[in-house]
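Run log, item B.
One chain of 86 residues. Sequence copied directly from the ordering sheet:
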Amino acid sequence: MTTVQRDMRTLAAVPLSVYLVAVGISLWFFNPISQQNQFAALFASELFTIAMLFYVYLHEDFDRLAALWFGAWWFSICVMLSLAFL
């Protein structure tokens, strides 16, 4: 693995990990019975972020990584905005 690939993986993995931890901590403060919609949306974004981390570390094709990473962040932003307007 070259240095450029390691840098790309780190560049993609660090923000995804920070997002994973931040949303994981916020899930502790939700009541899953009364706030089912918010809990489910955040949990789905957690699973999506974990899938993106696996993709970053298991695939060697970095040409599509930027587009997928950008798409993952837009998905996460849409989930957060949908939670804000519930």
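Observations after the first pass:
- The chain has a mean pLDDT of 76.
- The longest helix spans residues 3-27.
Flagged for discussion on Thursday.
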